Amino acid sequence: MRKTILALMGIGACYFASAHAQGIDWQQVDETLGRKPVVADDVHRYGFARTDLSVTLDGVTIKPALALGGWVAFKPAHGGAMVMGDLVLLETEINPVMAKMIASGLAITAVHNHLLRASPATFYMHVAGHGDPAKLASAIHDALAESRTPQTVAAPATPAPPIDLDTARLEEIIGVKGQANGGVYQFNVKRRDPITEDGMPLTPVAAMGVAIAINFQPTGAGKAAITGDFVLTGDEVNPVIVALRTHGIEVTALHSHMLDEQPRLFFMHFWANDDAIKLANGLRAALDKTASTKS
Question: How confident is the model over 44-87, as pLDDT tens digits?
């Protein structure tokens, strides 16, 4: 009976969210943020890639899609919208952006690194809020104006380079389909357990930043730089650390992204530059320690 009631509550929440989504002026949000979103179900996700930065790590020039892709996602909720995001900032930009966010009533839920040894160093600010979507968009726009984050999206000067990797083999090992994005091959692996924030299901999980993210950037001769983050419950953290380290993959950060999600989640970031198939097998060993899905 309890499962039936919860299921009906979930259906009701989805129905009302869908109905409210029809009343949101998404064009106004688009214009305020200066870009078009990627729409997945009822979520509008806006990218804020740091295309203005040239970041290197261990001799690899990091493409924005590998580790510099900031974003904010809007989801209809509770008579307005909830917004979550992960913004890429330089050290000098953190406090000016944070001050604007706080003044606008947005919450800061995490500030941390993802990578080690990168030059220049980059930091990642997670934000959250709820209310009128247009006002939330304006607050985010004004806060990001305190950084050098590009406020408009320029058309790419040249086509993205081909992915010089055996992507079919990578997909076979990782266990899900990947996709090319800006010269990077990306995977999103879902967890089997539902994830909620303030009682709202965080779906679709990739759009809301709660899928395991794995990115491969070709570095030549079948090698790739890899990074991303594992989404883990507490009991999975150390088994995944051991699996990654055993396979020559560096663990570069471990932290939370949210404040009151259920179940409690931890995000583990990683880095390596080696044979892509070898690294994929290491990542698969780590995925096997998690409650994640395969296609």
Answer: 999 999 999 999 999 999 999 999 999 999 999 988 999 999 99
Pairing of strands 122-131, 107-112: antiparallel
- The DSSP secondary-structure symbol of 128 reads E
Say how far apart CA 109 and CA 197 lie, in whole Å. Answer: 12
- Give the domain ranges of the chain: 2-144, 167-287
The span from the CA of 91 to the CA of 69, in Å, is 16
- CA–CA gap between residue 120 and residue 97 (Å, rounded): 18
- At 102, list the tokens: 């706080």
Amino acid type, 114: H
Cα separation, 101 vs 136, whole angstroms: 10
Query: What are 227-261's pLDDT values in tens digits?
Result: 999 999 999 999 999 999 999 999 999 999 999 99
Residue 202: name the closest of 8, 10, 6 by CA. 10
- Contact between 89 and 101 under an 8 Å Cβ cutoff? The reply is no
d(CA 114, CA 123): 7
Q: Which residues of 199-229 are buried (b: 16+ CB within 10 A; e: fewer)?
A: ebbbbbbbbbbbbbbbbbbbbeeebbbbbbb
Model pLDDT for residues 115-157, shown as the tens digit of each residue:
999 999 999 999 999 999 999 999 999 999 999 999 988 776 6
